[in-house]
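Repro case for the chain-ordering regression, as requested:
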Amino acid sequence: MTQLSLPEIPPYDEQAAAAARQRQNRLTKPTGSLGRLEELSIQLAGIARSAAPRIERKAVVVMAGDHGVVAEGVSAYPQVVTTQMVNNFLNGGAAINVLGRHVGAEIVIVDMGVAADLDPHPDLLVNKIGYGTANIAVGPAMTPAQAVQAIEAGIEIAVSLIEQRQIDIVGTGEMGIGNTTPSAAIAAAITGQPPAEVVGRGTGIDDAGLARKAAVVERALEANNPNPEDGLELLHKLGGFEIGGLAGLMIGAASRRVPVVIDGFISTAAAMIAVTLSPGVRPYLIAAHQSQERGHRIMLDWLGLSPLLDMDMRLGEGTGAALAISLAEAACRILSEMATFDDAGVSDREG
Amino acid sequence: MTQLSLPEIPPYDEQAAAAARQRQNRLTKPTGSLGRLEELSIQLAGIARSAAPRIERKAVVVMAGDHGVVAEGVSAYPQVVTTQMVNNFLNGGAAINVLGRHVGAEIVIVDMGVAADLDPHPDLLVNKIGYGTANIAVGPAMTPAQAVQAIEAGIEIAVSLIEQRQIDIVGTGEMGIGNTTPSAAIAAAITGQPPAEVVGRGTGIDDAGLARKAAVVERALEANNPNPEDGLELLHKLGGFEIGGLAGLMIGAASRRVPVVIDGFISTAAAMIAVTLSPGVRPYLIAAHQSQERGHRIMLDWLGLSPLLDMDMRLGEGTGAALAISLAEAACRILSEMATFDDAGVSDREG
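-- result from build under test --
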């Protein structure tokens, strides 16, 4: 029996959240007029246990892994692109590098299980659990021990970013050719929705590819028959190494009261595993955006999250998370930098 | 007969837009996977007449004015709040100051017609057309000459920001207790929609206030009977001084090929006047966000604009525009900073 050791998640602080809401209502604007920004600031207050939470150091953690299920022809791109894109991240040329620079977030790249040995690079964290997962259409993605290893690596990365680099908010990102397929399988297993309702076009497969992908998810569920209430089993049977790492990252961040901005489809599948393992993680999660990937809405609904952005994006890498981190920072700044009606000598509403 | 002199608007450059689209398709990501960010970069290329447009200097222009129609009880706040909030802007304590700092945009405050003399301040531009408009429920808001003056002041401000401060993008903002009422009247006049469909709660009026507001718009349309195809007449009969200034600002920016990010309900009414006066302004406009104010969707549809953000905001001041300016900057950076498949040695999709 494999043992997974999970950290305790401190409760969300309702008092700090209430204090932040009271402060929002005294700021020089009509009550509620900053909408989602106000709600976000209140959530961040509850997470940080402070009525004036601060976001200064920001990071997006991009975890990479390969997937044996690509043998089923589920992706529009060859598997080697995972490795090539990791190198692109390390060279600063990918979308997440640009958006990270734009919002002032550092980008942390982790090899959780790419199917090739990557050249050493000072910015590359290597936590390779394997050279890609096995094909979930015919059996489990990884061993139970590997699932434990992936989650624990993610927890450790979160804790070290928070303790050593004083990160105040973490965004999730990923790279892994084929990884929308295990994500869809996880979503179908947990929500009970039919595979055709949760699979999407990923990087851009055609109609035939989409039908094939739904059939592959169907086969993965039949071959593995996972218990939808067992997060570790879901990961071991259907997951990806980067999906397990991201689930661990979320648990680790929540254990230290640090908010997690989840990106798109794959990150959301990781969040479903994280919440299945540790329900206390839920209030620490912020959904960055509504992905164009079919099924994402169903997954966010299951998590009870409402995305901040809807920009028709479907790239992954943490690109949506980077944009949303900037909104979270804006929300905190509103709370701490705006004048109150009293401060500014502005009349509040009549009656 | 009052003469309004309008600058020529250069055409949107389809060739530069096409070149930007081609470049987007060579960047290391699945085609179209950055969704609205890609579309935005392409629009900005067409505006700037460059396949690699740059956004470095950013400004939000916040125009303030008062409204005689407050005599009808259409706002939840007393008129003095317009003056108080202008002072709050000048002291850096309002939401737009915080968000301007967050996105790196300078805030330009203009007194277009506040109903009091404001204390001189180095950051306050004074273009006072009058001490508030007249009550539109009983007659025209301003004289035709004042309408010309408001628009020309806006044009001049845009041109001077662009020529003297090298502003690359301009956001619109406003402050004026009561100004959702003239905005709704303009929207109803131009679109032909019944007042009840376009009026909203503004800063937060109750159901009785909302019904009163719809009736006031109805009376304003009856009392003034504006020609919906005459932008100047719409402004003179229904407008506000800040609404005219913003319409001029949009025309001035477009005349210099500078994109304009329009904020919420009031800015959108100004955009409708700008486009009625100068249809060539339309491709230079970017809609920041979907306001919670009822009727905003109808107005954006009339303009053919799709908002970037939907954050349940309804504050005005340019707060939505500030957030969207950051997205526009991100879009430009993606276009110029990302590696192409060839640069990065990444394999493009199969087949």
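Ordering looks correct now. Chain A touches chain B through 61 residues (CB under 8 Å).
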